[in-house]
Amino acid sequence: MSELYEEVDDPDGYFGEAVAAHYDGAPDDPSDEVFGPEAVDPVVDLIAGLAGGPGAEGGARALEFGVGTGRIALPLARRGVPVHGIDLSRAMVRRMRAKPGGEDIEVTIGDFATTRVGGPGFTVAYLVFNTINNLLTQDAQVDCFRNAAAHLVPGGRFVIEVGVPDLRRLPPGQNAVPFRVGPTRLGFDTYDVATQGMRSHHMMVVDGRTVYRTIPFRYVWPAELDLMARLAGMRLRDRWAGWKGEPFTHDSTAHVSVWEKV
After folding, report:
1. Do β-strands 185-192 and 176-181 pair in parallel, antiparallel, or remain unpaired?
2. 83-87 and 152-163: which strand pairing?
3. pLDDT digits (tens, 9 = 90+) for 106-154
4. H/E/C letters for each residue in 191-224?
């Protein structure tokens, strides 16, 4: 038996309860690649270091756009950095709340491109795991940069982790690229190079039935992000191929970029 759903009418957007229930991985899913200490610790190390940088005289304070189930916010808070999260999905946040320390993370429900949080300014804002691509227009992505800048203290940093568009893998006439093939999960992306639109397609076996979902994204280039930062009053400080400071080259498949509020 198969099931098709696309949660566009869900108030939680595309990350409603059906997605949140499986977001942290399944026993046959290589979730350690995303949720294990080897994946999480370098992220927390870098963000905690930036949070204690310029502008931290009044205390480090971090803002996560798309806090989700707390993959980064929870260990960052355990390092002693207060974290405030913004997320549209109540279902994802409920998953975080159920984890140890989850009740201690302040969360505002809303669109992270436009939702404002009160209180003192933040020393670092961050957006990881390709989440900038969840904003489906260039204007929305620019708004996200402006929103980050509005929350940061002078000298504060904005960090994004996102993949480099993988268009080199598209032969003429092909618009699909697989990213996961397993006994109970299949995933592939489809691209529209004219609009920079893409869709991730996920098929998984859950309780003996096949479930299919598709989520739209807008991919974005590093130079395009740099221009968005300039429009928001920020400048590029660092760009690496990963969280451990690996050099960013023409062969890099992803980047971690840090912009500084001027």
Report:
1. antiparallel
2. unpaired
3. 999 999 999 999 989 999 999 999 999 999 999 999 999 999 999 999 9
4. EECCCCEEEEEEEEEECCEEEEEEEEEECCCHHH
CATH class, range 10-165+220-261: alpha beta
pLDDT, averaged across the chain: 92
Question: Is residue 136 within 8 Å of residue 144, measured between CB atoms?
Answer: no
**Which residue in this structure is represented by tokens 């009740």?**
103
Instruction: Specify the range with the lowest mean pLDDT, choosing from 122-136, 177-191, 248-262.
Output: 177-191
Hey, how many other C-beta atoms are within 10 angstroms of the C-beta on 167? Answer: 13
Whose structure tokens read 């991730």?
Answer: 200
**Tokens describing residue 250:** 């023409």
Beta partners for residue 83, in sequence order:
62
* The amino acid at 190: T
Q: Which residue has the tokens 């050099």?
A: 247
CA distances from 222 to 208, 240, 256 (A): 41, 11, 10
Distance CA 178, CA 160 (A): 24
Mean local confidence (pLDDT), 161-181:
90
| 176: enclosing H helix or E strand | strand 176-181
Q: How far is CA 224 from the centre of its chain?
A: 17
